[in-house]
């Protein structure tokens, strides 16, 4: 317990440096795949503390892999830093009040997430140096979590292979260890190409829109023949026509895209439905005399939960305690709850018991196939109905309550890391649990070999707001 207190004291004395980065990211939000400033600032900080940083890994200019120490065990922390579109919000307002209309904002608290794990990694490193503890600390800078793009490409690039445990977290509306499964997920575009013609002689053309529309119909039919999933994690298959080839009915369109996203029970099912969608695309192209090209934007696995590491997180969450919400935090929380027509409860400060449950899709699920994952939630929003991915969570992430959440997370993750370094039996048990849950299934990337991350994603929007 003495060492745990020393780790927490170090964080208290040194947290201002990460608070400053978190504030900067909040003031300068960058959308998925365009997190150039954010990844640089976080990587620079790690380098300053003696981590070796490899920037631009896995073909992602805004990703990095940082490392300190040597030998086993290898503990990994995670940093996400992308913002969300159109959530700009004045942090001092308790009503909708954009700083810049339609500009991005940190409505998922990634300005905090960007440095929470980093704070833990550095605090743990200090402790390792002081006590001469063996082991390696890694920190992964992972772009585009909001689009689930970063981690599957980093996994395919082999970056997670030597890790023994992942220590991850996310701001939330609750304080708990999230021993959660998630659905697997894919995001894929089918580009239909035909032959353009004048509307008064359409027989000279082959309509790409016909191909895409027929595929939409095929997707509707396919839906009935895939397992529905459960209420907590339902199977969904959605599609849209993002830019229909022609804007004028008197032209046979040469190019049309149909865009599909799916949430599936597990990776196996995602791979199966992806291949059935490919078959639909080919059939629809053949029927309409067009051609089609598949573009997989991303595809992630289901999350493999780990109860053993969940319990380790809960223990340390109870040691550190829920964030010390100030009376101003509570006042703001109640005002926001009122604005959202939610019950004005403020923060409860309750710590939940660790149970297996489901949570929405995230690409952190990729981690969970390589090593047991410890996942912490700390309450940034006072209640579920106070909004998330919303101006309200953006307000909280920029306010002082965000800093309390960030330092709480940093402490809990650092302490969990210390336990893993000093009590090898915990890691052994966690690994045995993962082995049992995986039933011998290897990690196989759901990305086709030729899939590349689209570096132009959000580029035009970001240029407007930088
Ligand atoms: Zn998030």
TrEMBL record:
* Any coiled-coil regions, as ranges: none
Q: Which Pfam families match?
A: M20_dimer, Peptidase_M20
Span-the-membrane segments of this chain are none
Q: Which SUPFAM superfamilies match?
A: Bacterial exopeptidase dimerisation domain (SSF55031), Zn-dependent exopeptidases (SSF53187)
User: InterPro entries, per this entry?
Assistant: Amidohydrolase, Aminobenzoyl-glu_utiliz_pB, Bact_exopeptidase_dim_dom, Peptidase_M20, Peptidase_M20/M20A_hydrolases, Peptidase_M20_dimer
According to its UniProt entry, the protein's GO biological process terms are: folic acid catabolic process
Top-level taxon of origin? Bacteria
Gene Ontology terms: cellular component: cytoplasm
Gene3D superfamilies (alphabetical): 3.30.70.360, Zn peptidases
PANTHER family referenced in this protein's UniProt entry, alphabetically: PEPTIDASE M20, XAA-ARG DIPEPTIDASE
What is the name listed in the Swiss-Prot or TrEMBL entry for this protein?
A: Amidohydrolase
